[in-house]
């Protein structure tokens, strides 16, 4: 047994004994070197930072505030979670946000493990699913991104697990109430899907196995009441603070119903997630190669599946849950890649089963995983001709080399013990994520963050200029500018405010600047820089 074999075997053995301790160590290693080494990016990170700033400094926690205005997009619980982290000695500034992401990532892994326990997978399968989660590129990258989706998914997974214990395994009523309570907490983290996803997953599965009557009970009504109590308390607070119209029109109307039925942004076609899901599950998407589709969709298998559906199993639930969530998300008008996150733990267990049980099929899967790692690594190198920043060049090359080395190791040992291969993946992807978030992504601040624009705005605002923005994403400059900006999408309103002010510093996209030549006669451009994903080049201009 060589040194690498001993390392991966020892890692697996220890993880089987102490899965959450090892997961904690891995998440710590993956995140500790990058807790405060980059700026906040466009658009959600800087907006959430200002929302949190208003919560702390202005006490706006029932109705959140962005750029000095009520912010109906999100409930408050994620920001209160950040506030709890902020209470720890020595934790301050943007580090709070990145610690929040890391802790949410660890909780996501822990909730995945608990789901595995509830579904009665053995310890090896649970550990394999943990390894898969911690070596999925999209998932580990989210450990470094300021957003509430990981925490949202934690409570969705817990809700599904608790409700499964009650409705499917017919365990005590406490699991019913815990399931509905977890769903309400998820809703207060991000929104109504926190209740809708767990309930729909369980209802669909109960219908499939012919046990729908279990859901149609007095206990379900009591459970729904439990879930509505925390949500109702917050809704009452919103009405007291901001009025009933804000609750019904801004929160429920615009940011719940409209986004689900006719989104004003992020509107995508039905098939969007069928394209995005394989990307978000890289490199484990390769295990599609292990599936024998001809046999899976054969008439005999289909008949057997339908005939024996009442003798359900955990794997049937994994498939049912994945399909249900995918269908629900696909029916919604607003679509974003990160919304598929609740599906990934279910896929992790499906792949874990293939890895540990399906010999020849697993070998095909490992080959495909190796090839996908090569494709990602080599693909990244093609960006180098367009890169001028030396740190960025180094980071891209280093990341590509690590992915290619991991791919080579997977290819070499594809016939060996799957536990070794899982260990190689965990180590390889951990090295990759550490390398990328200490080099590549730190060098992208100038392209992805509005910090530089906001710093210019802050400088001139300190000299008495009135800060304004025109047709920009709301609140993207406020956090780094250190003050609220007057924001409008109407040129007449902007000109009215500009003419009333002696000196103005204005943030505006270059496209809007060129569309309104009148601004060129009033302002002088002092700063110009592209913001990737923000719609192009943004200008900062002065009126003296």
Description:
This protein has 544 residues and is α/β, with parallel strands linked by helices. The protein folds into two domains: 3-442, no CATH class; 450-543, 3-Layer(aba) Sandwich (D-Maltodextrin-Binding Protein, domain 2). It has helices at residues 3-17, 19-32, 44-58, 77-86, 95-118, 123-133, 137-142, 149-167, 173-189, 193-208, 218-242, 244-261, 272-280, 293-296, 299-307, 314-331, 344-357, 359-381, 390-412, 418-440, 445-448, 451-461, 478-481, 491-500, 510-515; strands at 65-66, 69-70, 466-470, 486-488, 504-509, 524-531, 536-543. A five-stranded mixed sheet has the order 4-3-5-7-6, with helices on both faces. It has a two-stranded antiparallel sheet with strand order 1-2. α6 (123-133) packs across α17 and α17 crosses α18. It is globular, with a radius of gyration of 25 Å. It starts with a helix and ends with a strand.
Number of strand elements = 7
Overall pLDDT metric? 93
Assembly form of the protein: single chain
Terminal CA distance reads 74 Å
Q: Uncertain segments of ≥5 residues (pLDDT<50)?
A: none
- How much β-strand is present in the residues? 5-15%
Tally of distinct domains: 2
Question: Roughly how many Å is the radius of gyration?
Answer: 25 Å
Rough outline: globular
Counting helices, strands and paired strands, the structural category is alpha/beta
Helix content: 55-70%
Helix segment count? 25
